[in-house]
Specification:
Blueprint: H1 9-22, H2 31-65, H3 71-105, E1 108-111, H4 118-132, E2 139-141, E3 156-163, E4 177-182, E5 191-197, E6 200-205, H5 206-211, H6 214-217, E7 221-233, H7 246-257, E8 265-271, H8 276-286, E9 293-296, H9 327-331, H10 335-341, E10 344-348, H11 354-365, E11 369-376, H12 384-394, E12 398-403, H13 411-423, E13 427-429, E14 436-437, E15 441-446, E16 457-462, E17 474-481, H14 484-497, E18 510-511, H15 516-532, E19 538-543, H16 549-561, E20 564-569, E21 585-590, E22 595-596, E23 599-603, E24 610-614, H17 620-624, E25 626-627, E26 629-632, H18 636-651, E27 656-659, E28 665-667, H19 678-687
Parallel strand pairs: 1-6, 8-9, 11-12, 12-13, 14-25, 17-22, 19-20, 20-21
Antiparallel strand pairs: 2-4, 3-4, 3-7, 5-6, 7-8, 10-17, 11-15, 15-16, 16-17, 18-26, 19-23, 21-27, 23-24, 24-26, 27-28
Helix pairs in contact: 1-2, 1-3, 2-3, 11-12, 15-16, 18-19
Length: 691
């Protein structure tokens, strides 16, 4: 029996995040877009430590308590830390050697580990006194004394001091004193704008401004040195296995969210220039294990780099593609009329999310509409979708909204918006016990006609959230349809969510917990069978993550049998290419201006091509711990359009790279100035479509 290899899930994710980091070195990308990718890399890494590393540490502790061997898990954690340290060092070099000089070329100077020019000293001192000093609350750090709690993801300065007059009350054995200062960037911008000089715009990190004025904070001391620190803490709020539901669960989550900042420390990040004896003192004072300490760029919390002001204008940023209009929809007085004629395909952000909002608003105003049902996974703040649903409720429609209040980091906002809808008379269904609902579906039901005909329904299914803000940033696909086959399946899913799940049988949709995994395996087996019969076998899978080993094994088997398999996987991908059993599998990763978020499954099926749009990645959590949905594309023109998009992305040579057997991001070839990326080609392609 062939022994298959798999990439480690977390190391694979770090490979993806490294690809994000590499985009910051691309000189053909506008400087503020490159800064955005640096910011995304830092933000991604912060969440990685809060969730994945925290879970790994927690599992190790549990296994130790059970007396089980944890050597492999600890070795994997060590590999993660080595790779993170490597990437953090490269991050620092990219920032120093690429970003700072590129800003300078555009007449922007961001002070970085350098003395402030003489013409800015007086301004900086005045700004500090008036805008910063009132919010500072320095705390002396004393070993073997009350331990100061360092809040999650907050930036601090640790300061080493020498007292001018000997005072035995505070003198420690080394002769130094230590203090902690929380950076008040909730009160002041992380980047302080300084007066322009000689045609240059100047900015300064807030922590550097504080560093340059430390002597005024500690008048009785000589400031020996100061360094930035921060911690990442476990973001779990102990709700994943909760067996309660409804408003009781919402109340418990609301209480537990406040405890998130108090979670166990998963890493302690410090300025890599901090000397060893300084680090030793912090370890002892805060009770930190040396392995939990992570060296980083002198300026930490670089996820905030995206907030660096742009004084020049849009020519330093990524050009925004103007959403493509759909002529027959724009000309029609009623979107329902057009959807009844043929399905409507929307590809955000190339198309505007306004088309879906129009669908909701027309549903609210149409007297024939009786009911609207919709899922909400990550709700936008001040959401136009929620406002449209509230308006529909005010028009007497029956509105049912399933709100997933266990969506990590969006729990508080989802609960707030759910209450807002409930107060407006909307029926709210909260999280299911033990499961997250990740399906992106909506259903509009019209009243039965007076002549006794069947009730007309309209369904919407998508690969992305009902969130008008992320729809401008994430590349997602959606379909609006009046086809009875699809509407019936969507209705069944809502029956499931409402607790009426007796004898539900899905015939067209693929739904996790029901038929999704078995149907995926069947379609892979079908391609294998066709190859064995002498026909072509072809699979194209586009998704964000592929980790489920039982499906990877099926793809390995298909490759061994000669099925040609192309994977377009943005993030985690545990398949190892270029092995004897994976010689027919190619893995493409695309990182471009828009976040590739669509999930598309393509099976050749002897020329009768099957194409699905899905909410699910092929991850254990999606397939077994969530309610996910995939729907077949029944409209032949839409199917053709989606296949053409897949082909553009497979032929992409600008922003795409292959993943090799060492998990390296291997670019197809070097980018040339003005060469269009795949996303730009897709934009031009969509302009030619006739919908």
């Amino acid at each position: 029996m062939t022994r298959y290899r798999y990439f480690d899930r977390d190391i694979s994710w770090l490979s993806f995040n490294y690809r994000v980091l590499l985009e910051a070195t691309n000189e053909f990308v506008p400087i503020y877009e490159r800064i955005k990718f640096l910011s995304i890399h830092a933000s991604n890494l912060e969440e990685f430590f809060k969730v994945r590393v925290a879970q790994g540490i927690s599992n190790i502790v549990k296994e130790i308590e059970l007396g089980n061997d944890v050597q492999e898990a600890e070795a994997n954690l060590a590999k993660i830390r080595v790779e993170v340290d490597r990437q953090q060092h490269e991050f620092s070099e990219i920032f120093r050697l690429h970003i700072i000089p590129s800003l300078y070329k555009n007449n922007i100077i961001l002070y970085h580990n350098q003395e402030v020019e003489s013409f800015h000293i007086a301004f900086a001192a005045h700004f500090f006194r008036e805008e910063v000093f009132p919010y500072l609350q320095p705390v002396m750090l004393l070993r073997n004394d009350v331990q100061v709690f360092i809040r999650d993801s907050r930036l601090y300065l640790v300061v080493r001091l020498i007292k001018k007059i000997k005072d035995e009350t505070f003198l420690n054995s080394e002769g130094y004193y230590y203090a902690l200062i929380k950076i008040p960037y909730s009160k002041s911008s992380r980047f302080v704008a300084l007066p322009c000089e000689r045609g240059f715009y100047y900015y300064m990190f807030l922590e550097d401004l504080i560093k340059s004025n430390l002597s005024s904070i500690f008048p009785g001391f000589i400031v020996e040195s100061a360094y930035s620190i921060k911690t990442s803490r476990d973001a779990a709020i102990l709700i994943e296995d909760d067996k309660t539901g409804g408003e009781d669960l919402a109340q418990r989550i609301s209480k537990n969210i406040k405890r998130r900042n108090l979670g166990e420390m998963t890493r302690f990040v410090y300025d890599r220039n901090m000397p060893q004896d300084f680090r030793d003192y912090l370890c002892e004072t805060f009770g930190i294990f040396p392995d939990d300490m992570s060296p980083d760029n002198p300026h930490l919390s670089m996820e905030y780099l995206q907030k660096l002001p742009n004084p020049i204008g849009y020519n330093l940023e990524q050009e925004v593609m103007v959403p493509i209009r759909i002529a027959h929809i724009d000309k029609s007085l009623r979107i329902f009329t057009q959807i009844k004629k043929r399905d409507l395909f929307l590809y955000y952000p190339y198309h505007s999310f306004e088309y879906f909002l129009r669908f909701l608003r027309e549903s609210a105003a149409d007297p024939r509409v009786e009911e609207i049902k919709i899922t909400q996974y990550r709700v936008a703040q001040e959401s136009a979708v929620i406002e449209a649903l509230i308006a529909a409720s005010g028009q007497g429609k029956k509105i049912t909204v399933f709100v997933e209040i266990k969506a990590r980091f969006d729990e508080a906002n989802n609960i707030k918006e759910a209450k807002k809808m409930k107060d407006a008379g909307i029926d709210i269904i909260y999280s299911l016990s033990g499961l997250k609902v990740h399906a992106k579906i909506a259903l509009v039901v019209l009243r039965a006609s007076k002549n006794g005909g069947c009730r007309q329904s309209f369904a919407y299914f998508s690969t992305g959230n009902f969130n008008e803000k992320t729809a401008k940033l994430y590349a997602d696909m959606a379909v609006l349809t009046a086809k009875k086959k699809i509407c019936t399946e969507v209705y069944k899913i809502f029956e499931l969510l409402e607790g009426n799940d007796k004898d539900i049988n899905f015939e067209t949709a693929l739904v996790s917990q029901f038929n999704m995994v078995s149907e995926i395996k069947r379609m892979i087996s079908r391609e294998i069978a066709h190859v064995k019969q002498g026909f072509e076998g072809r699979i194209i899978l586009k998704m964000n993550g592929l980790q489920a080993q039982y499906l990877i094994d099926d793809l390995y088997e298909a490759s061994l049998c000669g099925v040609q398999i192309d994977l377009i996987v943005r993030g985690i991908c545990c398949i190892v290419p270029k092995q004897a059993y994976s010689k027919n599998i190619r893995i493409t990763r695309i990182v471009d201006a828009y976040l590739e978020h669509a999930r598309i499954w393509y099976f050749y099926n002897k020329g009768i091509e099957s194409v699905f749009l899905a909410s699910a990645d092929w991850m254990e959590r999606n397939l077994f711990r969530r309610i996910e949905a995939a729907f077949p594309i029944l409209d032949l023109q839409i199917k053709s359009n989606i296949i053409s998009i897949l082909n553009i992305q497979l032929q992409e040579t600008v922003k795409a790279c292959f993943i090799d057997e060492q998990l390296q991001n291997v670019f197809k070839h070097k980018e040339r100035e003005n060469s269009p990326s795949g996303q730009q080609e897709i934009y031009q392609k969509i302009k030619t479509w006739i919908q």
